[in-house]
Amino acid sequence: MKIGKIITDINLAKEVPRQIIDKIRQEVHEHRLLIFKNQELITGERQVEISKWFGELESTFYKHPKSPHPDVFRVSNDEQEGCTNVGRTGWHIDGSFMKEPFKFSLYYMASVPKQGDTAFVALTELIESLSEAVRARWERLWMVSDRRMQIVHPLIYRHPVTKYPTLCFHLGMTDAFLWDANTEQERLTDWPETTQILKEIHKEIVKDNRSLIYSHKWEDGDFIISDNLAVGHEATPETQYPKSDVGLRILHRTTIRGTNKPVK
Ligand SMILES: O=C(O)CCC(=O)C(=O)O
Ligand SMILES: [Fe+2]
Questions:
Q1: Mean pLDDT for the chain overall
Q2: Phi–psi pair at 88, nearest 5 degrees
Q3: Nearest-CA residue for atom 2 of ligand 1
Q4: What is the distance in A from the centroid of ligand 1 to the CA of 230?
């Protein structure tokens, strides 16, 4: 496992001392994923409080009637319980369609199914694993999330905090790519070329028998804080299995407003 730190000695449901919060805020960039085990019940209210350690909450999504708090996105395998098919259109970071993509995502599995991992990939390692030729091509690409909104981000850029190379991408929500943005050679891809590039990114993520991927099998009481700009993720197909087969899956997700526009 290349990313993630397991934390067993912090009780997020209760007040957490200032120094520990500071340490968490630092370590989330170092490990990219902090996986807190054996948490007591975390209410929507408490998840929002924890989320505020990292900045301002921003919720851009449909509000499910069963959501415990207006800022908590409730995801489920049962549409009566939460939004379904979330994160299933492809590998992505959250908020790639925003001028400033979300800085952090916080996940609490309020009801744990028998199957239904969330898969994560460390983006710096992904970039470092590319052949020179592929890296050089990707360095020339910008992702056009939405042509009308003119949301255009460099595919590879430096993480605003760690300065490591990282990726701004969404394999299910990209209108086009732009080659060589802001140069005379600037050129927008057509749909066949766009899908070919999306497939190439997918292939690089899952290569070598998924050795770059950490697939998190959720257990009761798990709470994950992710450096959303440093890891890509995808809901695995099993996340959509019906509750009659795998039990009810309910994920409470909060996201933190970005404060940086990805720049080359
Ligand atoms: O359901 C999951 O495991 C993750 C879904 C997702 O992409 C998200 O909540 O941002
Ligand atoms: Fe997501």
A1: 96
A2: -105, 0
A3: 235
A4: 16
Is residue 173 classed exposed, middle or buried when 0-12, 13-18 and 19+ CB atoms within 10 A define those classes?
middle
Which of 75, 96, 173 gets mutated to test ligand 1 (max ligand atoms within 8 A of its CB)?
Answer: 75
Is the beta carbon of 176 within 6 A of some atom in ligand 1? no
Determine whether the shortest distance from the Cβ of 117 to ligand 1 is under 6 A: no
DSSP state, residue 230: T
Distance CA 33, CA 200 (A): 25
Q: Quote the radius of gyration of the chain (alpha carbons, Å).
A: 18
Among the atoms of ligand 1, which is closest to the Cα of residue 87? 7
Exposure letters 38-62 (e unless 16+ CB within 10 A, then b): ebeebbbebbbebbebbbebbbeee
Instruction: Please choose from 118, 121, 171 the residue to mutate so as to test ligand 1's pocket, defined by most ligand atoms within 8 A of CB.
Output: 118
Strand-strand pairing, 5-7 and 33-36: parallel
CA distance 78 to 94: 22
Q: How far apart are CA 61 and CA 74, in angstroms?
A: 10
Residue with tokens 């005379």: 184
Instruction: For residue 232, give the H/E element and its range.
Output: strand 231-235
Place 16 in a pLDDT band, splitting at 50, 70 and 90.
Answer: very high
- Inter-residue contact 104 to 255 (CB < 8 Å): yes
Tokens for 146, please give them.
Answer: 């939405």
Mean pLDDT value across residues 129-142: 98
Beta-sheet strands, E only, within 66-133: 73-76, 104-111, 118-122
**Tokens found for residue 234:** 């995808």
